[in-house]
Design a protein that fits this description.
It contains two helices and 15 strands. It has helices spanning about 5-10, 100; strands at about 1-5, 15-20, 25-30, 35-40, 45, 60-65, 70-85, 105-110, 125-130, 140-145, 150-160, 170-175, 200, 250-255, 260-265. The longest helix is centred in the N-terminal third of the chain and has 6 residues, at about 5-10.
Amino acid sequence: GTCMSATDCTSSSGSADGNCASGFGVCCMFILTGCTASVTQNCTYIRNAEFPNTASGSQTCTYTFNRICDNLCQIRLDFDNLVTVGPPTTGTNTVGLCSTSGDTVTATSPTGASPPVICGTNTGQHMYLETGSTGTAGTLALAFGTGTGTRTYNIKVSYVQCSSTSKAPEGCVRYYTGSSGTVTSFNYPNQFLANQNYATCVRTEEGMCGIQWSQTQGLTTDSFQLYGTTADMKGPADESDVDTCPQTFVAVPVSDANAQASIRICGELFDDT
């Protein structure tokens, strides 16, 4: 929540959830449960009306992010809970397509550079949305089709000013901090989503000068499998080489003495990089 006086919390249509500021303020929670609403407060939670029970299908819920502060650069969406019907796992030209399942989660940036459309189970994931400098700061639309399945969401909306240390580098859909961690694809460990093209970024930590990426070991399922419609093989290859991992791949930046380049990795093995 947001620390403010009890009076300001009530007048802003929030609800107190504990004390802050040594008891001089309250932790004010802002929760939107309507299917179509505008976000007007930082750290607002948007939930389906039935939460934690499942939402009904055949509806689209759209949330508009108002520009509530100056010097606004981004909005961070934390999916504390996000479960929708996942994409098909079989079929011709339909595997992984959220639009085929009828359920889509679409964040739209006014800059035109929007995150990918996702579906399935994405609890614990997050994404950043570039807000531009004028007008509406963006929207989030959750469209539910007629298919049978669980549909729940509880999403935290955080406004990130351009001067904030929480701001992600421009163009990063996901931004991780800390000296170690795990990065997974949207809807992991379920069906890999189609039509995904986004950047995942990691903050440089104090005293650190590089990153080592390695495949997670010890799981009951394979933690890395990336294939396109052709028999993609594991890289490395620079970004100009379309013969190695031509369609589905993870591109990892690497530095050499002459230039900044990337290698493409696909197939079933992700060697330490």
